[in-house]
Design goal:
- This protein is an all-beta fold and 206 residues long.
- Helices cover 2% and strands 69% of the residues.
- The chain has a nine-stranded antiparallel beta sheet.
- It is elongated, with a radius of gyration of 24 Å.
- It starts with 7 loop residues before the first strand and ends in a 13-residue tail after the last strand.
Amino acid sequence: MQGAVGETRQTRDFADLGYALKARDNWAMQFNGTYTRTTFITFAYPYTDRNSNEFVAEWTNLVTLTSKDRLTAGMLFDRIAGTEVASIDHSLMVAGGSRPAGGFYVQLDHQLLRSLKLIGGVQSNKFAGIPLSTVPRVGAIWTPSRWASVKALYGQAFRPPSLDETSLNLPDIKGNPNLRPETVGDLRPGSRLAVRPPPTGRRLFS
């Protein structure tokens, strides 16, 4: 609320477990699981206590197809759940719920020329109650020498509405259950220039 001033307190705890496996000489796998618990307490309006947790499991494959092609593909599962209650009465829930989701991604890096690499890929995301969304990723990296490179990467990001944004139920702050996901584009140009200092020192001959 505009004009409200007060203290907030947030905590975040997480645990991560990963495992790497060499399936073949040209095929490496990575397995990763992450659990995160977050609390958020407000000591001013709207005087609520939030407690949420999220679990993400991911499987990634890195495959060298040829001397010029490398494939990255994987899938993930995500589940987020939480509740938000009134600070003065923890039996009064003002928001809450859970939402599972899954995703798949694939990317191909192709060395078109010795100095030019092309990148192309897609990522698909499916959240409960939200239609499937697929976003692209493309790019090029030009390396004319060992000390200089130029790149341009374009991708899109998908963000679903949070549980608070859809389910919050306070007298003057309401969530919107019909809120639609957001998709944004991101263009990232960049360059690298490494200048080596001239060698110093003397060589003595006898």
